[in-house]
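Q: What structure does this chain adopt?
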Amino acid sequence: MRWGSVDYRQLQKLRDNLAKLESVDMDKFCRDMSKELAARLLALVIPRTPVGQYPKGSGKKGGTLRRGWTAKTDEEAATGGTKVDPKAYANSLPVFKRGRTFYIEVINPVKYASYVEFGHRTRGGKGWVAGQYFLTLSERDLERVAPAVLEKELEKLLRRVFNV
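A:
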């Protein structure tokens, strides 16, 4: 009884492609994706961050909190530090790895940022200023699109490896 012939070329090609996939630096891919998501978060949160409105002649200038997203220190933000592109700024941030988890810290160093985000008591403690949740809402928006962004980039990587 004869079982027929077998062509192993496709299995060999699959083996070769899997070897190529194994050689891909997945840590670099995860770091790049972390920076991409951080840039997207900054692109969402910066325009959503409120700008203080002050009367003319007061000598005060609004926008310190908004500029703080791409500033290294609150002093730089207060003095109107150099305007930085969110993507360029995100690429300059370090990505940390703890176990199998990659993370990147996007911080607004302006001292009163958390008070504007979550709300605070007024001077004298008798009233309450509601929080504006600009970061919370931006994070929620990012969580909605992140899976699609990651899936698209992973698909590109797999297409390169498998020459599809």
